[in-house]
Amino acid sequence: MRHLLTPDDLILEEIKTLIDIAYDIEANKNKYSKLCDGKTMATLFYEASTRTRLSHEAAMINLGGSILGFSSADSSSTSKGESVSDTIRTVSCYADIAVMRHPTPYTPMDAAIHSSIPVINAGDGGNQHPTQTLTDLLTIHREKGRLENLTIGLCGDLKHGRTVHSLVQALARYDGIQFVFIAPDELQIPAYILEDVLNHNGIGYTLSRELEDNLDNLDIIYMTRIQKERFVDNDEYERLKDSYILDAEKMKSASDSTLIMHPLPRVNEISTDLDNDPRAIYFKQVQYGVYIRMALILMLLGIDGI
Ligand code: NCD
After folding, report:
1. Which residue of 187, 222, 264, 292 sits with most ligand 1 atoms within 8 Å of its CB, as the best mutation to test the pocket?
2. From 156's CA, which of 43, 91, 136, 222 has a CA 20 to 30 Å away?
3. Which of 128, 136, 163 is the pocket-test mutation for ligand 1 (most atoms within 8 Å of CB)?
4. Tens digit of pLDDT per residue, the chain (306 long)?
5. Which residues, 6 or more positions from 205, have their beta carbon under 8 angstroms from its beta carbon?
6. Catalytic (active site) residue 142
7. Of 2, 16, 51, 279, which one is the catalytic site residue?
């Protein structure tokens, strides 16, 4: 039985397969519309979500499967004191695959140990978010035509941003990748990622506090929200929350091919005056997320042809 808990649970060849299937799904939706007939997905969300939960649910519905679940801890028996391991044992009796988001790092990993169905990590605290990474990889592949030889700027809350941690971990496995990490000192990328993922593998990167100075030589600028809910000190959040705001004026210094990505939700780190800029692809990311999650569900359920 397979789980998806971190991007490292997939080898590069499997990521390539998922991307190929996602392309095929986009082109031939009908071919896929009954493949999960009789299968059920449980979405177990102990933390707020719009896209990630609905995208998994849409993916399962598009495959002809059914969905059940809860969208906050308050509406589950967690509020009565039930452990996650008891919850997943229970859900294993009702569903064929589970998608879990939890505010505490590694909870989906713990759940997977007690689960008799595949578990997808839909975000564990400030740690990892592997299905957003699959979404981002498909988006980059679709819009740039490659996953190699790219210079990628990541900007915002790189300390708490789980989408950033997973994306860096995944992209670091492709050739010719360079990173530019743009954040206030307090919110820079964690040392373990610099050491274990980048230095260890000889991958080039620079650290910067400035957004504008870096925009002219990036293939992609990946903006992120300052993660309010992860701050212990609210005054610190208030001080840092508007550190970076990307707008049409600043994007004049970027090239025509510098794409703007964001996992969403956006607060105000990308001005809406960029929404109609052809380089802004954050709403395309949302659409691609459904296709790659459909491909992932098929792979984890071991459904024919995958
Ligand atoms: C992100 C998340 O939940 O980590 N959103 C998402 O899943 N697309 C990013 C965020 O909340 O800032």
Report:
1. 264
2. 43
3. 163
4. 999 999 999 999 999 999 999 999 999 999 999 999 999 999 999 999 999 999 999 999 999 999 999 999 888 888 888 899 999 999 999 999 999 999 999 999 999 999 999 999 999 999 999 999 999 999 999 999 999 999 999 999 999 999 999 999 999 999 999 999 999 999 999 999 999 999 999 999 999 999 999 999 999 999 999 999 999 999 999 999 999 999 999 999 999 999 999 999 999 999 999 999 999 999 999 999 999 999 999 999 999 766
5. 178, 179, 180, 181, 194, 198
6. no
7. 51
